[in-house]
Sequence to fold (174 residues):
Amino acid sequence: MPVLNSDRIYIIGFMGSGKSTLGRRLAKVLGYNFIDTDQIIEEQVGMSISELFRQAGEKSFREMETRILRETTLSGKAVIATGGGMPCSDEHILLINTHGISIYLEANSAFLKQRLLQGKRQRPLMAGVTEDEMEGKIKKLLNDREPFYKQAHYTIPLPVESVETLIKSIGLGG
Ligand code: S3P
Fold:
């Protein structure tokens, strides 16, 4: 593998895979800033992502994601937790992989369903999906998205043992 730019570490993966929680911990251990792209969007528009989907639609949200992603490529040392759909275009995964190290938090649909059922956060893509329908919906989305997620430099199966193990497996912190 060519030498990777480790100034930015992008955490990618499906909704509910724990990107923000792990990303925040990783940033703390490495002494990097922490950036959560969903949080930035919410702060900029002054409403929740769910509200933004309702008021402006998914297309506007995706356009904002493109702008925010481009901005992150100019940041100093940072761990960046991305929204679940952010890496899922040729342009976006290329930006991520060119400007930083990418880590895919890999999980199967049953695991993700449990996480999403436990989570308090509202996810507009799961709005109106019943518990019975959930796994099917996750499987379909995951199937569409894995070709992008799998382009990450590192694929880490969940659950992650510890941040320290993760740091070792991506060859940092030594
Ligand atoms: C989305 C995931 C969400 C958020 C938005 C769309 C997606 O982020 O960006 O609801 O397309 O998978 P999380 O992955 O942090 O839940």
